[in-house]
Protein 1
Amino acid sequence: MFWLFTRALLNDAPDEKFVLRPWYLAVWSLLAALGVLNCLVFVPRQLSISAPAGLVLTLATVLLAALSVAQSLATWRADLVEGRRRLRMLIVAATAGYSIVMALAALASEGGVPAALSSTTNACGLAILSLLIAWQLLHVTGLASGSCT
């Protein structure tokens, strides 16, 4: 979903509207179906396909996060408002970086990290990311400097 969000937000041509293409939906549907199958069928039944399915999903996360950053860089100059341009880059880079770090950590641990620790780490990371983006939004609009009446 993050990849589709950046495709819509950071359109190649700013004067054109984002068009949800059939292949975007096909990629998303395929990954979503694989995720559902992995969680509801492969893992609970301890099927040997669960490890490759998990690997495909994790690598897809890394690939789509990298594509989101590439989209952001490709359209960097199209936005003429400097503050908004920096904010867009911060949101995309921070979110993509977080996604990549979490995916690589999952690959490195090979499922060895207890669920409670993994969930807590993920929740803390998302909270920090949300605070960073919220602070930057307030800073960009001038609310942090007290210029609002």
Note: Confidence is low (pLDDT under 50) at residues 143-149.
Protein 2
Amino acid sequence: MRKPRVLFLCPGSSSRSQIAEVFAQLVSKDRIEAFSAGAEAEALEPLAVRAMAEVGVDASGHSSTSMEQLRNESFDFVIAVCERAKEACPAWPRVDEPLLWSIEEPSAATGSEEDRLQAFRRVRDQIRQRTSLFLLANKLV
């Protein structure tokens, strides 16, 4: 039986979509296939890696793919983590319209390293909650 496939999109794909991908895999206990993509493939932001490590998740070495690399793939759900990602989202077979989660861009945070890390923590916690609710609502866990 084929696992449901979920794609998380972000313009840069250096934090939000990758965090969502990691949590989706963990929460679903690998009952789904989760992917993250952006305009270009990027490694996970170091502060995102630190924020994930604080909740016991090793995301070091994780990276996304570009939307172009996944162009011929099919997904059951596509989730844009911000309006810019939704606007840039190409059409995907089987998906009428991507879902939109308006989540702040943590890498845009300014201030001390602790201030910026706090932004990543907020985003991590928000994404973990939304991912869990999404998976429950769609009976994917």
Note: The first helix runs from residue 16 to 27.
